[in-house]
Amino acid sequence: MNLHEYQAKKLLAAHGVAVPPGDVCDTAEEAKATAGKLFAEGYKRVIVKSQIHAGGRGRGVFKNGRKGGVKICETTAEVYAHARNMLGQVLVTKQTGPEGRLVSKVLVESALAIDRELFVAVVLDRTISRPVVMVCQEGGVDIEEVAAKTPHLICREVVDPVMGLMPYQARRLALRLGLKSELIHQAARLLMGVYQAWWKCEATLVEINPLHVVEDIDGNQTLVAVDSKIALDDNALYRQAELQELRDLAEESPLEVEASNYNLSYIKLDGNIACLVNGAGLAMATMDIVKHHGGRPANFLDVGGGAKPEQVAAAFKIILSDPNVKAILVNIFGGIMQCDIIAQGIVAAVRETNLTLPLVVRLEGNNVEPARAIIAESGLPVIAADSMADAARKVVQAVPR
Predict the structure, then answer these.
(1) What is the side-by-side order of every strand in the sheet holding 327-334?
(2) Structural domains of the chain, count
(3) pLDDT in tens, 299-331
(4) How would you classify the pairing of strands 90-92 and 101-102?
(5) Residue 143: predicted pLDDT
(6) CA 13, 18, 24, 28: dihedral to nearest 10 degrees?
(7) Distance CA 86, CA 104 (A)
(8) What is the DSSP-derived secondary structure letter of residue 227?
(9) pTM of the model
C-alpha cells in the first residue's frame, strides 16, 4: 500500500526525522491560509506540491495543458493561483501513464535555501532476507540511473533485523554522505529514525529523495526530508489498524479495489486474455506460457488456495469488467483446493454473467474427474484443455481476430 507524500512525512516526523513545516490542503483557500502562516513565521518562499501516488510531479503536465505539479511561490496570491490550477485536475507524469491521476490535495510547505541534495532509503532485500539502508551523495535524481551508471556512489549497510540499525552503522553511512562534521551526528540520528519508521510501520520501502542540506531561517545548516515515499507491506496491514486508515482508494484501480474486497489478488495488465488461476507461482507461469504462444495476458488474478464458488463468481465479474478482455483462461491446480468446488463456481459464474467470450478451462489435481464431469454435463460452451501448453494454445486461437 502506497502513501501520499504528506502521509509519509507525518510518519517520518513521528520518528524524529525533520520535515519542512507546512500542511496538506483540500482547497485553494486553505493553501493560501497555510502559506500566509509560513510567510508570517519568516519563510521567504513556499512550495505547492500536487499529492498523487506517482513521482515526476514537477515535470508532469496536466491534461488541461498546464505544466508542473510542483510550484515554488513567493506570495500568497501565487500559492492560491497554483493550488486552484492543480486541484481537481488530472496530472500526467512518467509514472502515471497517459491516463494520469486526479489531484484532490496539495501540500503547502516552506522552501528553504538548498546547499546539497542527498538520497536515503531503507528497503527489504529479498535475496538475503535482510533490510538494507542505502545512501547516496547524488540526490534529487533518478536513483536507478545512478545505480546503473555510477553504482560506487551508492553506499549500503545490511541490517540484522534482530539488532536493528546500529549507531556505528548510522555514523558510517553519515560519513559516506560526505557531510560536514557538525552534521554527522544529526545525519546519524536521522538515519536511525528512518530505519525505525521502516521497522515500526512494517514497510517495504522508505525513501527520502531528496534529503536536503538547507539553511533554516536562523542561518544554520540542517538536514530536512524534502520529499519522501513510503510503501507498506499489504500482508502486515492487519497488525497496523491506524495505517490502514491512510489508504486512498481513489489512487488505486477500481477493479483491484473490488478484488481486494473478496480477498483476490488482481492486477490489471494491457492484454486481452484474462487469466484466472490459483496460486501466485502458477499465475505467473500461466501468463508466461500465454505470452510464449503469442497471446497477451489481460491480468494477474490469483483466487488463492482455498477459493469458494462465490469468490470464483466475483473473479469472473471483475474480469468481465475489463472491456479489453476477449477470451478467458482458467488454470486450476487442486491441492488444498478441490477442483469440483471450482468447477461449480465456474458453471455458476458463466450462467450468472451470461458469458459469451471464449472460455478455456484446464483443471488438474484433487477431485479433477468429478470437476470435469460437472463442466461437461453443464452444457456450457467451455473449451477443455489437458495441459498448460494445450490451454495456452487454445485460448490464443480462440481470441477473435
Answers:
(1) 265-268, 299-302, 273-277, 327-334, 359-365, 382-384
(2) 3
(3) 999 887 666 777 888 888 899 888 999 999 999
(4) antiparallel
(5) 72
(6) 170
(7) 8
(8) S
(9) 0.80
Is 124 found in the same domain as 36?
no
Check pLDDT > 90 for residue 333. no
Q: What is the pLDDT of residue 306?
A: 66
CB 327 within 8 A of CB 401: no
| Domain stop point among 252, 280, 297 | 252
Please enumerate in sequence order all residues whose Cβ is within 8 A of that of 76, keeping only pairs 6 or more positions apart, or say none: 32, 35, 36, 39
Question: CA distances (Å), 203 to each of 195, 198, 240, in order?
Answer: 10, 5, 11
All three cell numbers of 343: 468447477
Would the pLDDT of 342 be above 90? no
Question: Looking at residue 227, which CATH number applies to its domain?
Answer: 3.30.470.20
Q: What sign has the CA pseudo-torsion 361, 362, 366, 368?
A: positive
In angstroms, the CA 119 to CA 288 distance is 36
For the beta carbon of residue 158, count every other beta carbon within 10 angstroms.
Answer: 11
Domain that includes residue 299, residue range: 254-398
Instruction: Indicate which CATH number applies to the domain containing 311.
Output: 3.40.50.261
Query: In the listed set 208, 231, 252, which residue is the last one of a domain according to the structure?
Result: 252
pLDDT tens column, 122-138: 999 989 999 999 999 88
